[in-house]
Amino acid sequence: MKKITAILSFVLAFILILSPSGGLFTYEASAAGKWVSSWATSIVDSSVTLSSLSLQDIIPARSTIRIELKVTMGGDKLRFKFSNEHGAAAITISEATVAKTSGAGNAAIDASTACAITFDGNKSVSVPKGATIWSDAIEYKTQALDSLSVSLYFANSTYITSAGLSNARTFMGLRSIFREDVSQCYEPRINSAREVNIASGTITYHTTPFLAEIDTYVSSGNVDTAVFIGDSTLVNDTYLYFAEKLVNAGVKNVSVVNEAVVANKLLSGGTGLIGNLYGDALIDRFERDALDISGVKYIFVKIGLNDILHQFSKSMGADVPHPSADDIIDGYKTLVKKAHAKGIKIYFFTKSPWKGYEREFLGQTGDVVWTKEMQNMCDELNKWIKTNKLADGYIDCSPLANPADEYALCPSFTPDGAHLTPIAAIALADLIPVSFVGVSDSDIKTAAKIHKVNPYKEKNQIIYDLEHPTEAPREESTTKREENTTRVPSSGSQTEEPTTRVPSSDSQNEETVTRPSSGDVAATVPSYNGSESFTVPVISDTKETQKYNGTGVIPEYNISENHPATIGGGTGVVFMLVLFAVLTVAGAVMFMTLNRKKEEDFE
Q1: Residues 40, 72: Cα–Cα separation, whole Å
Q2: Which of 6, 65, 404, 485 is most buried, taking the most CB atoms under 10 A from its CB?
Q3: pLDDT value at 158 more than 60
Q4: Residue 585: its pLDDT value, please?
Q5: Closest among 254, 213, 239 to 73, alpha carbons compared
């Protein structure tokens, strides 16, 4: 009898192990799921020090901030990473929620979708200085390219010292003086919402306090993350346009996030008056901002230009290291070694043209001026990027150049000579081979086609004008196709030079690509004539904003057409100071008027 009991016990235990509720089966089922990063930003020290005085944005007590962003991967759960890396003291988030954004740019949410973000089951959390924390995983279904709003309530005044400067927009709402209710995390709109941002030259950077990363849990399927990392020439929507191409084609297993930082360098950290905004050297933040990103399998790097420019700048030249091109190339090799050690593929962008850029600083231009010496260093870096056999491939940015000057960007591609306009970001996204993230390009529609624009219209006109200098300007561009080359190294084989064609506006909505041999993939430059009346909005109002419907999304973040005249994001403080000054002047005028009236009455 004891033997029968023992046998039955063994059989029962075996059945439990294999049953849906048993340990082994459950472990394998949970192992099938995976956390991937669906949104991220690189956290920098967002305070500015002037004459030993630290200038920081402040969140007043009993205030709510709302962060609008897009996730590039859909799933069943979310978790959130918060950072106080540069704080001088602990910060306390009193309450946090996530909800679907209702419109864009107006701090509004669909309140019915709001869900509490918790920390070990609690609604509040204290983040120690220098630390980062993750929230609990919460059940929250999302689709790729969903617009979400993360609302954070602060019961106490809190300085913003740790923040990202891209990929989201933040609105600060003050509590109503007529009501005693506090948190607005669940409110459809927050009271007196004002955007928090920092202006630098021709670009406005949108401050994202404390929120560093959002992960999405995908319950099944082999999903991966592609990380874009670099300097301000990637602080734009290139990564979103690339993600949109994938989603539009039904690709659901690749998430795309952006960790670019304004004025970032490869080998050294930020220097100068606002150097802390430039972040740590990429080689130092590479592990945190790329290798440690959840689910990372692909890394796209665009860095090195500032290592050259800053050493020749009038404001920083004496205070920054002066690396040679070889020093920067050694830094590239270090990145490749670190990525490959973790089985991650790494690709480099060539340096985009920048002649004509003068780096506006504190309202003054001419801090950096293009020289052939500086260009020669850029050319050395580009040569290594195109010929090395260490990295997994590269993206050639030369199609963005002005045909009249190969060292300059096409005028429509830049607001200042170096940074990219939205139309240029579309063009750059289309220069990235989707094969780099393991996707076949046979069913991929270009970002330009999705948005019905022809990024190369102006370039084609310039080419035509150069070839026909005596002709009157044409209404419709026709141009001879120009040959260009992009090389993608294949594993274990000699690299070939497949041909890519610059688009001609006389083609009929089709792409011309010469296929490389041996399985290599050429970067594709779109060749078609899109709708000339279509405008790509950058920061949309409510009427322009629409949910992703499989045919296109409206880009909403990063480069702004409205540039504040001064550097600093403390708009609430500035507003109060201006209001105080106006009231003071008005009071003085009134006092003088009444006093004069009394004197007249006395006389």
Answers
A1: 10
A2: 65
A3: yes
A4: 52
A5: 254
